[in-house]
Amino acid sequence: MKKTLLFLLVALVYVAHQDFWNWRKADPMIFGFVPIGLAYHAGYAIVCGVVMAILVKTAWPEHLETEKTEPPK
Amino acid sequence: MIPVIVIFVYLAIIAFIGSIAFRQGKDNTEDFFLANRSIGSMVFFLSLFATNMTAFAILGSSGQAYRQGIGIFGMMASSSCLVIPLTIFFIGTRLWALGKKFGHQTQVSFFRDRWECNHIGTVIFALSAAMLVPYMIISIMGGGTVLSEISSQNGHPLIPYTAGCAIVAVVVTLNVFFGGMRGTVWVNIFQTILFVCFGVVAVIAISHALPKTFAEYMSSLANDPKTRALVTRERIPMQTFWSYTLIPLSSIMFPHMAIMCFSARRMSAFKRTVIAYPIAIMITWLPCVFLGVLGAAALGKISDPDGVLLRLLDAYAPVWLAGILGAGIISAVMGSDAHQVLALSTMFTKDIFVHYGGHEKFGERRSVHFARGFIVVVTIIAYLVALALKDKQGIFEIAVRYAFSGFAAMAPVMVAALYWKRSTKWGALAATIFVAFSLIATGFLQGKPAPPPLAVAKASTNNLAAAALSGTATSLATTNAPVAKPPSAAPIAAKPKEDIIWKIGGGADAIKILSRAPNGDVRFLNGYMTVFPMVLGSILCVILFSLATPPPSRATVSKYFDSTIAHE
């Protein structure tokens, strides 16, 4: 269940990158000077950071660190 | 003169850091290539980021934003904010664990062992090296060009192109030669801080000197029908915008990125990296894209859009900031160049020299000497090529652009190796050959003479916009400078024509399977970039050829999948 939710979250964020509704819009200008299309993707970058934080918190492959080392071939 | 002094101070600092790293180094390959797998969390993030950022993030992004508008940020930067951290999360961590467990130092050594086949590793090595070398050459060319432009006074450069290339090549070589991975990552810390801070400082400095406010400039662009496209995404086709989300798959497949993943001390180093990476991309790219668009309003038409940032700094910022910009650009160039040189040396030493018996014959210490010798030779060759083919820079730019598609299309091979037990060497080989063939075919189509242009025409807004849509840095796009004379009065010599290579159907409903945009770029299925069919084809090759051939031995599957590595 957790895996499915995380997969859906990542898929949703990927789809949200294609913000076709902002394609021809300049307004509103965020803070008076940042066009909406640019502000959206700046916000998108922050959301990506949050999504990665969620992945790290909930799905970090901790077990990889405990693997025993084998001598190199 | 001040910018040149700032740059030389910067280069001296780089050399100094390299010399400290040299004193701490040991004469074995694990230390030279991977800093003894001892890179800590913060250093790992800063270095990985510097490895991935090129001068394009600063100069190219602002130039493209000047031509095509704010959409450049969404297309080239924010798509990487999701895809690159995901690849580091799902691929980088696994590579790290396998490197730690089985002693792998390169992707190729992992592929060889995973698929029980020497040849597959050699083929992937050859393809990776072929895609990496143009990148290295263009880094030296870019460094030479920037140094000559920044040092230019009244049209005469204090540092000519040849000397600029030599300075970049020598500093990178010394740093990598003496410092190996340790020297490279230490320098990266300084470099990343420099170019991440640059954009923010530039925006603040320029905002104080501009005669109008940012809001006034942006409103003027938005309210003028001729320039409104710059504050929207009208000049970027949706197909291109989406295709770009596949390009960041290339990141982890670049040998220098994968090798970086082997160098972390603990896997927890990846945690900070994947979270901070999107934010660092935003801080680096956003100011540069914004300034590029702002330049269209504040400067009007300029002959060289890629120089828009330099023009803004010249006009509205203190002279020392131009020096910082120069150092920032050079650091971006050298940060990735140093990793490329080191990666080529690592691959050649470990995957060819050591693999084919060099280590047994010459020993560990001599292997490091061999690696250092290789670094010198490869840099000299790259430098000579950069001089000899100075006027053919476009060829290397195209090669680098397609290299991104090529590495992105190799990502399915890596995913299969890590996550799919049933994948076989034949699947991997088929995908690799498919990628190589696609790159050659694309290069061939790109190099074909353009179709004859349509009759001489006066440009309409739509014509110009359509031309700019399809391309990147073309002279026509330059003609399309947003605050040029009214389009109805702006004559262009001829309207380039889209070259349809293969289509199904006719008339308006025709499906253009393969075409060439007016700037020569090859497009697929009504406008998608070639990375799309390449990734798709690579996935199909891995799946179909793996299913059609015998699975890997039980011992190998058990080695890589019965442990916990591939689970979860």
Distance between the amino and carboxyl termini of chain A: 40 Å
The separation of the N and C termini of chain B measures 58 Å
Main beta-sheet annotation of chain A:
none
| CATH fold node name of chain B | Sodium/glucose cotransporter
- The CATH architecture category of chain B equals Up-down Bundle
Key structural traits:
heterodimer, A: 73 residues, mainly alpha, 0% strand, elongated, B: 568 residues, Sodium/glucose cotransporter, two-stranded antiparallel sheet, 70% helix
Any overview of this molecule?
The complex is a heterodimer of chains A (73) and B (568). Chain A has 73 residues and is an all-alpha fold. Chain A has a domain at 6-11 and 28-56. Chain A has two helices and no strands. In chain A, helix 1 packs antiparallel against helix 2 (36-59). The radius of gyration of chain A is 19 Å and the shape is elongated. In chain B, 70% of the residues lie in helices and 4% in strands. The longest helix of chain B has 49 residues, at 161-209. Chain B is built from 22 helices and eight strands. In chain B, strands 5-6-7-8 form a four-stranded antiparallel sheet. A two-stranded antiparallel sheet of chain B has the order 1-2. Chain B has helices spanning 2-24, 29-34, 41-52, 59-68, 71-102, 107-114, 118-150, 161-209, 214-223, 238-243, 250-253, 255-262, 269-299, 308-316, 319-354, 358-388, 393-419, 425-447, 461-470, 475-479, 531-548, 554-562, and strands at residues 152-153, 156-157, 457-458, 491-492, 499-504, 511-516, 522-524, 528-529. At the A-B interface, helix 1 and helix 2 of A face helix 5, helix 9, helix 10 and helix 13 of B.
